[in-house]
Amino acid sequence: MRKASGATGNGAAFVLWVVVVPMALMAVSAYFWTAAFPRAIPLRSGATPESVDVGQKFEVLGAVFTLGGYVALLATLWYQRQQLVDQRQRAAEDQVRSEFFQLLEAWQEIIHNAGYRGETGRATFVKLSEQLASVVEMKSGGRSGGEPASEQCNPNALYELFYKGDVKALLGNYFRLFYHIIRYVDQSDLSQKDKDGLVRIARAYLSEPELHLLFWNAISQHGIEKTKPLVEKYDLLQNYGGFDDQQFKELYDFRAANRGAKGECLN
């Protein structure tokens, strides 16, 4: 819609400056020199008291018509340049979208090729999510329902107990590529509306176990500086159902995403 409205605006401007303005200029000038002005101040030549011939009056109009043609030429050149700029912009935007889907495909390949303790593909992330949940429950005293965890159990320390060895090797690659996909879209020249649309596509690929892992990764030392701001900005945890019994939900700022204290959508 944005591209269509821009093209319509350029076309209207082209018609205005190439057709309407020159014709209006010439019409007003013709009326002024052939009708209005001679009645107000009769034009006479220096050699005779007779009024200047109408053909002589139109000699003056020649300069006016030339000016109108010059305006039309400039408007044509401007329109052609604007069309070229629009084409380049559309090509750049199409390239961003093409590369985004290529990155998304590579990210999904990591998921399909994942394996951990006998599980493969997306089942791997179910296993990892269960293991992370066990670590959190064991080390935080088993509190749930939003009750505060022990002050000695900060989220980074809990995540580090889980994020090591084979887990780190697998999830490190997974989260690095996911971060760069969202960052690539965020730093592109697309409009914010188009950026939101692409990120929504990436978000739709996230399963509940992946959202659980992302929740913890983003508040750990591995994601708090870079990943967490993007998670909040693009509401990447919107579909996460673990907010109701999540002890560390207050570490996220949901205001930018128009969400409540428990992560519920407000719109």
Describe this structure in words.
It is built from eight helices and two strands. It has a two-stranded antiparallel sheet with strand order 1-2. Strand 1 (115-116) and strand 2 form a beta hairpin. Helices cover 66% and strands 1% of the residues. It has helices at 2-40, 54-112, 122-139, 155-162, 166-186, 192-204, 208-218, 227-233, and strands at residues 115-116, 119-120. The protein is mostly helical and 267 residues long. The chain has two domains: 2-91, no CATH class; 113-257, no CATH class.
Describe the secondary-structure layout.
Elements: H1 2-40, H2 54-112, E1 115-116, E2 119-120, H3 122-139, H4 155-162, H5 166-186, H6 192-204, H7 208-218, H8 227-233
Antiparallel strand pairs: 1-2
Helix pairs in contact: 1-2, 2-5, 3-4, 3-7
Keywords:
disordered N terminus
Q: What do the pLDDT scores average to?
A: 76
Cα(first) to Cα(last) distance is 24 Å
> Total strand count, please?
2
Radius of gyration, in Å, reads 34 Å
Per DSSP, the total helix count is: 8
Q: Which ranges are low-confidence, i.e. pLDDT below 50, for 5 or more consecutive residues?
A: 1-5, 143-152
- Give the strand order of the largest sheet, numbering strands 1, 2, ... along the chain: 1-2
Q: What share of the residues lie within helices?
A: 55-70%
Q: What does the main sheet amount to?
A: 2 strands, antiparallel
Alpha-beta content class: mainly alpha
Order of helices and strands: HHEEHHHHHH
The coarse overall form would be elongated
Task: Tally the structural domains.
Answer: 2
Strand coverage percent: under 5%
